[in-house]
Design a protein that fits this description.
heterotrimer, A alpha/beta, B alpha+beta, C alpha/beta, B: alpha+beta, 5-stranded mixed beta sheet, C: alpha/beta, 4-stranded parallel beta sheet, globular, binds flavin mononucleotide, binds iron/sulfur cluster, binds FE2/S2 (inorganic) cluster
């Protein structure tokens, strides 16, 4: 109180859970418990940090963030000091400047200064802060530095340079607080302290790729990015990891038409800034040169490259002919869990409204009785549960970053996490949650039926919310948008149930169905290559989009080059229903317009009116109008379907 | 498994004694070093198993403390304090004498594997009897070169011929638990503590467990001349 | 005033290290009295009344420290700090060597006052024989009914665990001690929360020095008021001073606080040895600033010594005669800190290394004046910036020596050798 009076701020403030703090003369009110560091950020004042990390508890070991606080006898670490009411903080005093210079001098004392050959150059906090706050000269008279080992391969992904390490403990705390694996620890002490693995063993974690990102300097680097590029030569595009349905936010860093790395892009609601190695190191898959590049039209005896308008006309005409001759129900339409919401939305409309066929799907086998209840639990809400049950290894194998959220719930929020067998008995599940009131149940989508049974049993203990791990990047979007034989968009009940994916392919192979309209690539179908090949060979007409040469491109009657995920814009929906944007980060491999445009044109040629330009953003607007849950979700929110909306 | 059953059960007993198992890491490392003379990765893995921690936790801890070592040492451990109080009273002479008489440098082991000796800046807490050294954990105070010779000579005599495999002090010493002071052998002469004589040398009898800072300093301690 | 023997009065008695011997001189009467006369609350109040301040270095009032424990949070823990590693200190070893049961009795009294059912004695690894002595004493005390369930029929239970360290000075710092006791690297913890709120295993914890605890039986038996009257107003009681260096009779001397330092030196220590004269002394152990002969008239009083720019710290007195090179002494202390820095924070880890490399160059006469100037700056960049007091104190002696013996430091620059030592050798020759 006295401090407040002295600084002249009005003494009486209503208790709104906030405290008033002044930093370099800027007054602001922040929630109680806010760290001085975060308050400074809010005030637009930069305080250099090394050990502090937004996802980890403060340790205050690097002392880089020390600031002057009135009434404190010594400088205090901004990263670990909680803002108090009336606190007067100064970062602009000469003593703070001197202190930073001093700290940087200490840090550089035993640093190898090998910036020219360090992969971190350009995005290194040590380099950056030295430029900004450093002393400019070195006065260390002793030539001998403490030497450690350099370029130690910790695994096929990670390289450790112990000399560049500034001992901020982030990697150690990452393993302690984020994954719980404790693979890297501190060894020795004093100036000989180093980070290392037990007995110099190799890393085994599925989440190693995060290490170079938590490291503020060049001590931990990606071996797959070794000497590949300087950060300023990279083009960075915000996108979503395409490896699974969890929807981790990434930056796609590309150079010279190739993806050079994926970097995490913190979304606290989804990935909490962590990626799994499967996702992170999948970037190279998008660099293969083998692509479908031109539209092709095939008849019995010839195959020719055609212009895009001609391909569109041919596609519309041939589909129309089959429908006229054999009826709309002789056409199957297959989307893909790798497609964007906009593409799926258009495809579903073409199927049901333009062509008029009931045979719509995006995978081989559709699920019975989908319900909104199985998608209730959101990813962050996992942390609110006091007991969590995970059925089988599938959920965490499908969506590895889920493991980290479970660990966070367990380690930081005190939740009880129990992993049971896929087909665990209800009694075991009940035993695992005794005493809990908020229960989370997590299962893979192939295990939905059993999860539904267990949920019923657990409901006797407390409120149960379920998270179902859908498969495929956008498997959730495909279901929400009705690419299903048994549900329309928003899980709308259908009077007539169509054939599922497998039945469509079998129908084509048997000559029962005549034509197929499909969006590729479709990993689910490709898993049944034989059936797929029989189907597309036999079909009278196959209108397909695909990115790479393969079975589909070999037999399609009208083939459109597809755009890989990083070559187009749109949105995809993750396991919990979060609708997230993707953006074009690489130049497309083909000059054919994106799928949404082509689909809109085909629909137009088949007689649809008022579908607009087919620009992904325009389609997105249409989609939001048509599917209210997506309208409410907007960009980045969750599309939730109330129980009533579900059949 | 590399540890003897006796060592394992000592570790298990320690584990059960503490409110949390992990607290028994230091006692466990002591037990291992007494048995094996050093701390190996295998032993750390085994400790980790007993205490329900990861082997990396054990290594992080064992390398922090200067009295656990990762290398085999001689049969006897000799540590000479060179901190201020001892230095003021001639510790450097003792260091020179050891270097000469044992014919090896601080941190090294004699050719016959008898002694690993080192000078330490870590004050041993024997400043009242400076200069001080510890031999196999026992204080030897008010040192003169002659006294050093007498102490080490007596140890040489008592050592079994031939040495033990591995040449590590702990292996032999671990078998002989130290004799604490009892009614019969108590020394109750505090005057000696402050007086001249070599009073606080502990009980007569076999030396006990070894100890030495492991070589963790990678640079020569003196600045280049 | 000569020695005032309170803690050490029975030292030398027959077989004092054994339970029988200790009981013979009235041992464990303090514990009996505590159960009889006090409730835990009144016992804490009595210790407050005594005004006793911690003997571990910081001199924090013990009763006040105890009263910080939150009410009704259990279990609580008590740790006796027997990590004594401060250069120049050997009093805790002496107290244990001579009378281990006195410490155990004090520990039990404190455990009763704080309602602690598990207490620890954290003893440094180098005190191997002392650890065994304590372990044996604990077993004896357990057999004698002083440790365990329902101690002496009081209804109070307490177990005592003796925990051996393994060579790390920093483990004397109370939060590092707690980490080490938990089986972690002995590195200090971020405060707040303070140990009184969240200490060992996340529970309320008190850490007290050996000597602090050894005082408790006497405070209980003679009363807080009596104790308070002993010594000075700000520094009550006696302290055991560890005297070493260039004196005739090095050793531990228990002195009533307030006695002039000169008396300790001249009467107990027998003055400076070999007819030499006092050049400087360090009160309080390796961490504390150097003082000069003119300071000998200061009383042994924590505040008085503090006002003179140093501290009684952990009660070590290192006396140096005129042949001593203060650069050499500084170098040794700086080496000590470099060796003992836990490595957690940057200024201490790198700063002590920087300091030590510089001091070696200086001591051998190879440093330049500019390098000497940077030494001061390095120290100012460390002091007050470190995570725990270890790094801060790593600069105190050097800076004070530089202040008082600037000429000596400067004479080393470019001399190619230590000029002080060279002069001393010349004198002898
Ligand atoms: C680096 C460092 C080393 C310390 N070493 C010891 C020690 O060896 N023994 C001790 O009793 N206190 C030591 N202390 C002080 C303890 O942190 C703590 O203040 C003391 O044990 C409290 O006991 P007391 O209140 O009875 O003095 C040390 C402090 C620091 C910062
Ligand atoms: S000052 Fe820093 S490095 Fe030094 S001992 Fe304390 S925490 Fe460790
Ligand atoms: S960022 Fe605060 S001490 Fe490192």
């Amino acid at each position: 109180m006295t401090a407040v009076a002295e600084t002249g701020t009005p003494p009486e403030q209503p208790d709104d859970g906030r405290v008033g703090i002044s930093i370099d003369g800027r007054e602001l009110r922040v929630p109680k418990g806010t760290l001085v560091l975060d308050a400074a950020t809010e005030a637009g004042i930069h305080i250099p940090i090394y050990c502090a990390h937004p996802k980890m508890d403060p340790v205050a070991v690097c002392r880089m963030c020390l600031v002057n606080i009135e009434k404190f006898p010594k400088p205090q670490p901004a990263c670990a000091t909680v803002a108090g009411d009336g606190m007067v903080v100064r970062t602009d005093l000469p003593e703070v400047t001197k202190l930073r210079e001093g700290m940087l001098e200490f840090l550089l004392l035993n640093h190898p200064l090998d910036c020219p050959v360090c992969d971190r150059g350009g995005e290194c906090d040590l380099q950056d802060f030295t430029f900004r706050y450093g002393p400019g000269i070195s006065r260390f008279p002793i030539t001998e530095k403490v030497h450690f080992k350099k370029a130690i391969p910790l695994s096929e992904n990670i390289e450790l340079d112990q000399e560049r390490c500034i001992l901020c403990w982030r990697c150690v705390r990452y393993y302690e607080e984020i994954t719980g694996e404790r693979e890297i620890v501190l060894q020795q002490r004093g100036v000989d302290t180093l980070v290392a693995t037990f007995d110099d063993r190799q890393l085994e974690s599925k989440f190693q790729g995060n290490l170079p990102e938590v490291c503020p300097v060049g001590a931990l680097t990606h071996r797959k990015y070794r000497f590949v590029s300087r950060p300023w030569d990279l083009q960075r595009t915000a996108s979503i990891c395409p490896e699974c349905s969890y929807g981790c936010n990434i930056n796609v860093d590309s150079r010279d038409f190739e993806v050079r790395r994926f970097a995490s892009r913190d979304n606290p609601l989804v990935d909490d800034m962590w990626l799994c190695d499967r996702g992170r190191y999948s970037f190279d898959r998008w660099n293969s040169a083998e692509r479908v590049r031109r539209p092709v039209v095939r008849s019995d005896d010839e195959s020719r490259d055609v212009s895009v308008p001609e391909a569109i006309t041919q596609a519309a005409r041939r589909l129309r002919e089959i429908a006229d001759e054999y009826g709309a129900a002789s056409i199957g339409v297959l989307g893909s869990s790798a497609s964007t919401n906009e593409e799926l939305f258009l495809l579903e409309r073409i199927a049901r409204q333009v062509i008029g066929t009931p045979h719509v799907d995006h995978q081989l086998d559709a699920f019975d009785d989908l319900s909104a209840a199985e998608h209730e639990l959101g990813i962050v809400e996992i942390e609110d549960c006091d007991a969590l049950v995970v059925l089988g290894a599938d959920p965490e194998e499908q969506a590895p970053v889920l493991t980290l959220r479970l660990y966070k719930a367990e380690h930081k929020k005190g939740a009880r996490v129990t992993r049971l067998a896929k087909d665990a008995a209800a009694a075991d599940a009940v035993a695992a949650v005794t005493g809990a009131s908020r229960i989370g149940l997590i299962a893979d989508e192939t295990n939905r039926a059993h999860a539904t049974e267990l949920a019923a049993a657990l409901a006797a203990i407390g409120s149960v919310r379920r998270l179902t791990i859908t498969r495929g990047t956008n498997g959730r979007g495909a279901k929400d948008l009705g690419m299903l034989p048994n549900f329309g968009p928003a899980y709308a009940a259908l009077t007539e149930r169509g054939k599922n994916g497998r039945q469509i392919l079998e129908g084509l192979a048997a000559g029962e169905l005549r034509a197929l309209l499909m969006l590729g690539p479709n990993p689910a179908l490709e898993a049944e290559a034989d059936l797929l090949e029989r189907a597309v060979r036999k079909a009278a007409c196959v209108v397909a989009f695909d990115t790479r040469p393969g079975i589909v491109s070999r037999y399609a009657t009208v083939l459109f080059p597809g755009h890989a995920i990083f070559e187009k814009a749109g949105s995809i929906t993750n396991v919990e229903g979060r609708v997230q944007r993707i953006r074009a980060g690489l130049p497309p491999a083909s000059s054919t317009p994106v799928e949404t445009r082509v689909l809109t044109s085909i629909a137009g040629e088949m007689g649809a009116v008022g579908w607009g330009s087919g620009d992904p953003l325009a389609v997105n607007r249409l989609l939001r109008d048509e599917v209210p849950a997506y309208g409410r979700a907007g960009n980045g929110g969750r599309a939730l379907f109330t129980a009533e909306a579900v059949a | 498994m590399t540890l003897q059953a006796e060592t394992r059960s000592a570790i298990e007993r320690a584990r059960d004694r503490y409110p949390r198992a992990r607290s028994a890491i230091l006692p466990a490392l002591w037990a291992v070093q007494h048995e094996q003379g050093l701390i190996t990765p295998d032993a750390m893995t085994e400790i980790a198993g007993i205490l329900q921690v990861t082997p990396s936790d054990v290594e992080a801890v064992s390398t922090f403390y200067s009295m656990y070592f990762q290398r085999p040492h001689g049969r006897h451990e000799v540590i000479v304090c060179i901190n201020v109080s001892c230095a003021l009273r001639g510790a450097e002479d003792i260091v020179d004498h050891l270097e000469r008489s044992l014919a090896c440098k601080s941190g090294e082991t004699t050719a016959d594997g008898e002694f690993t000796w080192s000078s330490t800046v870590e004050c041993l807490g024997g400043c009242g009897g400076a200069p001080t050294m510890q031999v196999d954990h026992h204080f030897q105070e008010n040192l003169t070169p002659e006294r050093v010779d007498a102490v080490l000579g007596a140890l040489r005599q008592s050592a079994p011929a031939g040495g033990v495999a591995g040449g590590s002090a702990g292996r032999r010493l671990g078998a002989e638990m130290p004799v604490p002071r009892t009614d019969d052998n108590v020394r109750s002469d505090p005057a000696a503590e402050r007086g001249g004589g070599p009073a606080t040398t502990g009980p007569a009898g076999p030396p006990t467990t070894p100890q030495a800072p492991k070589p963790r300093t990678r640079r020569p301690r003196k600045a280049p001349q | 005033m000569p020695e005032y023997k309170l803690l050490t009065k029975d030292f030398g008695a027959d077989a004092l290290q054994t339970l029988k011997g200790y009981e013979k001189v009235g041992g464990y009467q303090g514990l009996r009295e505590a159960f009889k006369k006090f409730t835990p609350e009144t016992l804490v109040a009595e210790v407050k009344t005594s005004n006793i301040r911690g003997r571990g270095g910081a001199g924090f009032p013990t009763g006040m420290k105890w009263s910080f424990l939150p009410k009704d949070v259990f279990p609580r823990y008590l740790c006796c700090n027997a990590d004594e590693s401060e250069p120049g200190c050997f009093k805790d070893r002496y107290l244990i060597d001579e009378s281990p049961h006195q410490l155990i009795e004090g520990l039990l009294i404190a455990s009763y006052a704080l309602q602690v059912n598990t207490s620890f004695i954290y003893i440094r690894g180098e005190y191997h024989d002392q650890r065994l002595l304590l372990e044996r004493a604990v077993e004896e005390a357990r057999a004698g009914g002083y440790i365990g369930r329902n101690i002496l029929g009081s209804g109070f239970d307490c177990d005592v665990i003796v925990h051996g360290g393994a060579g790390a000075y920093i483990c004397g710092e109370e939060t590092a001690l707690i980490e080490s006791l938990e089986g972690l690297r002995g590195q200090p913890r971020l405060k707040p929360p303070f140990p009184a709120i969240k200490g060992l295993y996340g529970q309320p914890t008190v850490v007290n020095n050996v000597e602090t605890l050894c005082n408790l039986p006497h405070i209980v038996l003679r009363g807080g008021e009596w104790f308070k009257a002993l010594g000075t107003e700000k520094s009550a009681g006696t302290r055991v001073f560890c005297c070493s260096g260039h004196i005739n009779r090095p050793g531990n001397y228990e002195m009533q606080l307030g006695t002039p330092i000169r008396e300790l030196l001249d009467v107990e220590c027998g003055g400076i040895w070999q007819g030499h004269t006092l050049k400087a002394f360090q009160p309080g152990g390796g961490s504390m600033q150097v003082l000069l002969p003119q300071h000998l008239d200061l009383p042994l009083d924590m505040n008085a010594v503090q006002e003179a720019g140093s501290s009684l710290g952990a009660g070590a007195m290192i006396f140096m005669d005129e042949t001593t090179c203060l650069v050499d002494v500084s170098m040794r202390l700086v080496d000590f800190y470099r060796h003992e820095s836990c490595g957690k924070c940057v200024p201490c880890r790198e700063g002590t290394y920087f300091e030590s490399e510089l001091m070696h160059r200086l001591e051998s006469g190879h440093a330049t004046r500019a390098e000497l100037a940077s030494l001061t700056d390095i120290c100012s960049n460390m002091d007050g910036r470190c995570f725990c007091p270890l790094g801060d104190t790593a600069t105190w002696f050097v800076m004070s020596a530089y202040k008082y013996f600037r000429d000596e430091f400067e004479a080393h620059c470019g001399a190619g050798r230590c000029p002080v030592r060279a002069q001393a050798t010349a004198l002898v020759a």
